[in-house]
Amino acid sequence: MNEAARVGATRGIGDDIERCPLTTLFLSVYPTASQANQATRKNLLDDREAMKQSIRGLRSRIEQLAGERERAEKDSLEHTRLWQERAEGLKAQGLQVADLQKKIAAAVARLKQQQNLYEAVRSDRNVYSKNLIETQDVIKEMKRRFKFMNHQIEHLKDEITIMDHSLVKEHFHHHNVDKDKESLRNDVTKVKKQIVSGEHIALHQRSELQKLTRIIQEADEERQRQARRWVIAEGVGGVYIGAAFHRVKEHDAIVGEKGVLFGQLMKRNDELSVLYDKIRIQTSSLHQGEVRYQQLLDTIADLEGQIKSMEKDLVSSMSQAGDLNELTTASNKLEKDLMRERAKMTALVEELELPLNVHRWRKLESSDPERYDLVRKAQSLQRNLVSKTESAVKKDLLIQEKEKLYIELKTILGRQPGPEVAEQLAVYQENLKHKVKQMRAMEAELGMYKQQVDLFKSDIEAANEAMRALRQRWVADQRRSKMKQGGSGSDETINLTANTWDSSSPVGATASADTMAGALSVLAVATAAVTRERRRASRVARAKMIVRRGVRVLLAIDIGSSSVRCSAYTVGSPPMLVPGCAVQLKHAIVKEDGTADAEQVILLVDAAVDKCFGELRAREVAHAVIAVGFACFGMNLVGVNASGKPCTPVFTYAGSSGASCGPSSSPPPPAGGGPPKDPPPGDCFEEEDVVKRLRKSLEMMGSGGKGGLEEARQRTGAPTHVSYAPAQLLRWLRETTTAGTVATPTKERVKGGESNQRRWRSPQRSQVKLWQTLPSLIAARWCCLRSAPVSYSEASWTGMLDLRKLEWDTHTLSVLSEAGFDCSALPRLADIGDLRAGASGATLKRWPELDGASIRLGLGDGAAACLGSGCDETSRKIAVTMGTSAAARVVLRMDRKEPTPAAAREAAGASTDGVDEAVPADDVLFHVPRGLWCYRVDRHRAVLGGALTDGGSVFEWLRNTLALAPGEDMAGVMEEAERMPPASHGLTVLPFFSGERSPGYNDDATACIFGLRRSTTRPQLVRAGLESVCLRLAVIVDLMKDLTDGGSMKGSSSNEHEPETFSAGALVRDHEDAEVVTSGNAFAASPFWRKILADSLGRTVRASGATEETSLGVAVILSSLESEALRQASAVPGSLLAAGLATAGETRSSSQENRTAPAVTAVHTPDDASFRAYREAGLAQQRAYRAVFGDAAGDPHLPVEPTGTTID
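and the corresponding structure tokens:
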């Protein structure tokens, strides 16, 4: 029995005695007992009371003992904890004591050794000191003599060195003056040639302007003639008025275009005049420069004469200094003799310090140098010294003259034009080149307009022919009708009417409405036939050219955050870039607030396509374009109105600056006045963070005992973050709600009935009729469609696509709908190749070569970069990109899988409650690891990975902060950093300069550097920064290793209701780890950084040789789609493409056509020791992360620490 049971039993003893049935029966049976019995009864009662008192005392004592026991247990636990801490401390101290004892023993041994050495040195010192004292007097005189001679020699050396340096400076200055003179001559020649070429170009442009003026005059005359004909036709029949007006409108449109073209030509003429003025100013400046240059040439000629005379003097002085070599040889010989004498002296000192040799010492006499020899050498040295002194004085005078001449030359050179004039001249030259390019572009545009004018002329001629045929038919009908009526004078009337068809005088004509309607229908049919025939001829010519040349061109348009690219590729394995057909227009597309301007992006895309077509036309392959594809930065969404024009800014992945709703104001007042009503719950009028509200709403939708936030991430593949569409749409709803001046209440339908809640909605929201991405918006305009669908790839980048069902996620739409979002405005979804439309309308007028070409939907830039690096689903290679940011991705097979029917689930015992049933384990394609995202490539593939906000920007920050200048300074720091051992600097860096994305998704994260000391150097900081980025990439790659390093696509889970997860022990690995393919400017420029990545990952890293991987990835998908379409066309017997493709042998499968990976420029293999060092550094980085930001920073997707495995 435990203590609590004993205390309870003791407390109940008194109550049991009071309620005892025997006591009660005894007192009730004998109410009239004797006095003795009464005394006994009283004694029993007293005993009972005494027993109660004793029980109460025992009870209090038990409670006291219980309290004391609890306190003793607490004290015991505290003492136990203290004992354990002290025991651990004693253990640590014991280890320290053992280490100290070892160090003390080693120190004692070293001390004994040093003492022995000291005794030996001391005895040797005593012997040497005795010998040294006896020899010092003998050597003193020799030292004095040698010292005097050495001073003289050093003085001569210094003087000679100074004169040599001054001579070298004069030669160098003379060489620089010659180079400047030659460069000025070349510049003058170039400017003269540019002036002549500019005059030729101006004459050519004037002649072209005169030609255009004549063409415009001819077009005006033709328009007047047509107007007169149409007026006459109006007299013939009123039914032709509509057709005439239509022709007049078309001609007016042509005239309007002509006016625009004329305005542009006048503007270009004005620019040319301004350019001519600048050229004249520049010519006058050049003329002045030539005059000044001639003066300088004269001065330089005089200086050259003086320099030649100086050179003659220098040669004479050098001939006089010919004995310098002999003096140097003599000095070296004396130094050697001195060293030899010093060695002898040391040996003598050692001998003299021996006590046994003291009596053997005697003065040196016979071994002394002969005095006569020494005196003779001294006299010769003195004579040489006197001669050298005289020559040195002469050279000093010469040097002074040279210095004066140098000062004069310096003043003369200071008067001539400086580098500012050269820079201004370079600017003028660049402007001239730019204007020449613009003129060439104008010539190309003019040629295109000429082609259009010729096309319009041919259309007018065809219309005139149709009108003539119609006139003849009408005249024949009129004659037949008159002949049937038998009227007189019919031929004259008909002939008069026929003649008035071409005359300028309007004459009325009588015709029946049926006849005129038939004639009009004939005209329309004829016009349509002519148009169809022209298009058919164009398609046939295009097919013949493709079959004849065997060239098929693909246009890949890449819309980035800072530029727009348009590149042309030929169909192949892999597609090859057409030389010179890669156009890039740099522009800050994404603004500082994270939005973009859709119209501006469309103009940039059109301009890039114009330039690319210009290059293709120059190479005569423009008509071989068979498909156009797009790639765009992830998460872009724009609202359009009923006419298809953008009415909102483009929301992008960078729109995280307004994630918080911030302080909200009250809702707008009603239209009829009065106090505003309280806003309903769910609108964004609260002061609450948008992302937190979104997470809270999704978390409440969980089912099956799981959190709704994790279920949403598994469905959409994207975390709940401000860079995705749901959070930005909620923010937009809040801004448009509070920004409206007049709001109209609307009723919202919810599931289960109609709600009476009234929502305040701004008129700005009602303008949005459809949401589009940038590629879909451009495709719709090019194809003259009301709207275009959005691809699965771009839809998944918004964070609202159900990856499994390939439809919009119902849970996310439910949250947005409750906030007032119109879910019916979301676009249709389709695969990249599902758009069955081609260019038409104004697009074909601008680029006639797109007639018959396929326009495809957009692709996410990350997925395109993966495919462009050769990392498709068959290779299972990991693509790591390093630019300003960094990312690691892998393409996986992910076919759409139909969910299990609800009836089958109910039969199996699963729950079917809720708006949308939880996805059972059998329907999970694969589990998205925490900290990563997953997007669609198409209906069959997905890309899994993670991204870092800071990649190459970390090195940029280090370079700017540490003031690393390009050149030797940068190269020296990088070489020293490369020589350091891995992770040997003692620094731990968290590279979150712009916040964190994968795997923690913590926008409040900041960069931290741990372990800084006074001795920390710049190479250590640079290496620590580069290693920190690779360690963060290693965390991402470790999270995806279960899907890339072999094994099944699903893991095992102990709980049947939980989604299947992955573990290293549950997978069966049947091949080696997946390789890594790097791309991006940062990795391409630094093999050192790629080596760090290989050692950090423990995997082989291959550097991709492909350039512009995103555009190449778009070309890869287009090549696959177009090859499949051409094979389907070739399957039709008797077709032109069937014959052509059969002869060309292009019937191979698409899977074999586009699997050739780009070339590899370098391979880096990991080192086992470096891998272990980086694993320890990665664990230190994770501990620092948790110490600063906690275990649940940002989105709850922080992974566990990586395991310390080694390379297999």
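(Above: one complete record from the training split.) The mean pLDDT is 75.
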